[in-house]
Design a protein that fits this description.
binds adenosine-5'-diphosphate, elongated, Rossmann fold, binds magnesium ion, two-stranded antiparallel sheet, 313 residues, 8-stranded mixed β-sheet, single chain, alpha/beta
Length: 313
């Protein structure tokens, strides 16, 4: 059993580090290994379709490839489905949820939108057709760190504040799922720079009281090492820098030096994250492109697969 064989894979991290890209790569790896996989998100600015050469994902699962489906929900759609799940019948649902007053009331409950999005993700893990699970794995491209924490804490908050009933029953089931490492994997995505590394460390610390322990850190967008120490390229760059060239050669030298500095910075922060976050860290390269293509996603997916299947030493 590897991390790719979990029921739920939570993909967490700061905004802009490539969380969605890594979620797509992870989902693609699960699907390649024969698992029926749902790539789940609630983000209006979806790019998953492009990543698989398909139309943008909608509220309904859409096929992205063999064994792979994508779903992009919204708070309203998730709330509607969650309501239907609790109330079971469309008629009852319509009576209660489509009522103008209840609608206004529901909108005023803090965290309800987030709970519906989390609850819907959980619902998909329990979905069955003819006695078989519909999804082997749900890969959840979570919101940015702070928002994810608010969302993940909701079952805990419900259990502390709401009297026993259907809501607490679900919250307890969800809590058990989230903190069970045999069923749920938590993967942190970051980049090797000061702020994101700090945030990844803080996120790990904030997940701990919930009993969620991230199993891997994917350090995305690592700069390529064009000038490894002692290589001919490094010697040439050193010589050019020493001879104060100008013109075209000067520009090339400046850019070479910048690339080398960028790589050094990434290596520094990679070492820092490896030393300070308990989960094993794996570097994922930055692919220098205008936009990532389906082939690029496959390449990243191969690397992510290795990161999630290599046993932690
Ligand atoms: N390893 C990578 N190499 C090159 N570009 C990347 C890589 N990872 C992400 N990107 C690009 O960076 C941008 C932000 O990635 P995205 O996954 O949308 O971030 P997030 O979901 O964290 O906000 C996108 O344009 C994406 O294609
Ligand atoms: Mg995203």
């Amino acid at each position: 059993m590897t991390l790719l064989d979990r029921r739920v894979i939570l993909v967490l991290g700061k905004g802009g580090v490539g969380r969605s890209t890594m979620a797509a790569a992870i989902a693609s790896a699960c699907a390649r290994r024969g698992r029926r996989t749902l790539l789940y998100q609630a983000n209006a600015n979806d790019r998953f379709g492009d990543y698989f050469g398909r139309p943008a994902c909608s509220h309904e699962p859409g096929e992205l490839g063999p064994n792979l489906w994508g779903l992009n929900t919204s708070p309203a759609a998730a709330l509607r489905e969650y309501g239907l799940m609790i109330l079971k019948f469309q008629k009852v649902y319509d009576m209660i949820f489509e009522n103008r007053i209840t609608k206004a009331f529901l909108r005023a409950i803090p965290g309800l939108d987030d709970y519906a999005i989390l609850g819907k993700a959980w619902y998909h893990t329990t979905e069955e057709k003819r006695g078989r699970p519909v999804w082997d794995t749900v890969v959840f491209d979570m919101p940015a760190s702070g928002h994810s924490m608010t969302m993940l804490r909701i079952p805990w908050v419900i259990l502390e504040t709401v009297p026993e009933g259907p809501l607490t029953r679900d919250a307890r089931t969800l809590q058990a799922l989230l903190r069970d490492p045999a069923r749920t994997a938590a993967i942190i995505v970051t980049i090797a720079e000061e702020m994101p590394v700090t945030e990844a460390r803080e996120l790990t610390a904030r997940l701990e009281p919930l009993g969620i322990h991230p199993q891997r850190v994917l350090v995305n967008q690592m700069a390529t090492d064009h000038f490894p120490a002692g290589s001919p390229a490094a010697r040439v760059l050193g010589a050019l820098k020493g001879s104060h060239v100008d013109g075209v050669l000067g520009a090339v030298t400046t850019h070479g030096a910048m690339a080398k500095a960028r790589r050094a910075l990434n290596e520094h922060y990679f070492a820092e994250i490896a030393a300070t976050v308990p989960a094993p860290a794996f570097p994922i390269p930055y692919l220098s492109r205008q936009a990532l293509s389906p082939a690029d996603i496959q390449q990243l997916s191969g690397l992510v697969e290795r990161a999630l299947t290599t046993p932690a030493s």
